[in-house]
Sequence to fold (318 residues):
Amino acid sequence: MVLVYSDNKNLTIEILSKGSELAREIGEKLITVIIGKNDEKLADEYISYGSDEVYIVENEIEFFKSEEFSEILEKIIKETSNNYILIGSNKNGKELASRLAGKIDAGCIIDCSNIYLKDKKVTAERTVYSGNAIAIEQFNSTPGILTVSSKVFDPLKKDEKRKGNIVKKKYDIEETSSKIIKVKEMQSESVNVEDAEIIVSCGRGFKNKEDIKFANNLADTLKGKTIGCSRPIAADLKWLSEDHWIGLSGHKVKPKLYIAAGISGQIQHIAGMRDSGIIVAINKDPEALIFKSADYGIVGDLYEVLPKLATALKNKIG
Fold:
């Protein structure tokens, strides 16, 4: 069987797309796991997106702990004889996948960009060396664990008529020595670049923090209202929060339109936005690496191009 788990609903739905394809190709069922409260509505939704069976595991664990969650998944895997486990590759998911692999003596491939069958073996691709190469990996034995980041696979079309089984479980989990004393929410600007359809992104070509208003103006004109940035803007200069950071160590995005203004195009940034629908690059250096990844390029000073582009779009859009 194929098992899917993530503590993020949207990421789970995305992974179900590839999970259902994989299960169909190897002739197995697809199981999704919900850990926490009894949420039959969410279980029905997962079934409508491709899951054949949903395990709802109720527990009284207030916060995520990889020790307890990995033990729960270990019990389900042993009960259902799962061959492949797909886990969402967010912060919690990476910790969970690594610990679970150790507990069940499984291979683990992190941050898969593609998963498919080759010579009847499950094969995974993932980017390595900061996006300069693609590693192709297979498992020598089962079970095997694969983690998948957000925006890698598009979700299936929702089918509310689809039927599946809901299995409710409750396990006695051994209490671990580690304790979570307090969880404090990170201060956020309510920016969600990962779900944005239009992003105007800022790079080191901006001379002052106040000049980001030019990017904001263009984003407002496009009714995108989402600003992204490269690493120096968020990590070094602190002109924008890390909510805006797009790149290998930041957020990975997949908008319909991505405008990169004053961004040189280092591979670490490209790794975060390479899957965008249309990429427009604005840079005064005609040799900038960003143009190699762009569908359209404008060679020019962003201080001249952005206002003129915003004015032209306003006249066009009305």
